[in-house]
């Protein structure tokens, strides 16, 4: 019996130690203070699919992933907008409805009521912070990768409700001046649009 209770205590201590508040604080501070970034990215998923493209980030809240394939993902600070250029179809998803949207909110609070920090880890020169949606953990999780030395974002990994894992790795990232507002808008000709939570096929969400 004593061994049983000792095991429970050790388990609880390990679980609590899985989240380092100082790491969470650094991640939150970085995400809210970084200005304008530009670079390239590669994307790979556990299904075997892969893609690459150009990445733009303008805080607060704006992001653009321009894929080599006919698709673009844009955040305007309120929504993630997925544009399938082959169909000229747009899907809108609220940033607070999916784990990936946490990265692109205008004000990021990793300890907010709707976000739960699941784990912080140190692996291969990176500091990893994994978060999920507090009220809907089944929707998936988001793992962010920061360089351990300078604590700069170098990618993220999304695990969706079905277990599909998609990782985006940022390359050649550099700070730049003011980015054009047009980068964070979708230019299209047709009017077909999908509102809601339909999951686009590239696995980013």
Notes on the structure:
It is built from two helices and twelve strands. It has 205 residues and is mostly beta strands. It has a single domain (19-195), classed as Lipoprotein localisation LolA/LolB/LppX (outer membrane lipoprotein receptor (LolB), chain A).
Q: In what order do the strands lie side by side in the largest sheet?
A: 7-8-9-10-11-1-2-3-4-5-6-12
Class by SSE composition: mainly beta
Q: Give the overall pLDDT as a whole number.
A: 84
Helical coverage, percent range = 10-25%
How is the CATH topology named?
outer membrane lipoprotein receptor (LolB), chain A
CATH class: Mainly Beta
Radius of gyration: 18 Å
Instruction: Indicate the CATH architecture.
Output: Clam
CATH superfamily: Lipoprotein localisation LolA/LolB/LppX
Shape by Cα distribution: globular
The succession of helices and strands, N to C, reads: HHEEEEEEEEEEEE
How would you characterize the largest beta sheet? 12 strands, mixed
Number of extended strands: 12
Distance linking N and C termini = 46 Å
How many separate domains make up the residues? Answer: 1
**Number of helical segments with 4 or more residues:** 2
Q: Which ranges are low-confidence, i.e. pLDDT below 50, for 5 or more consecutive residues?
A: 2-17, 191-199
Q: Roughly what fraction of the amino acids lie in strands? A: 35-45%
Kindly list the characteristics that best describe this protein.
globular, outer membrane lipoprotein receptor (LolB), chain A, mainly beta, 2 helices, twelve-stranded mixed beta sheet, disordered N terminus, 205 residues
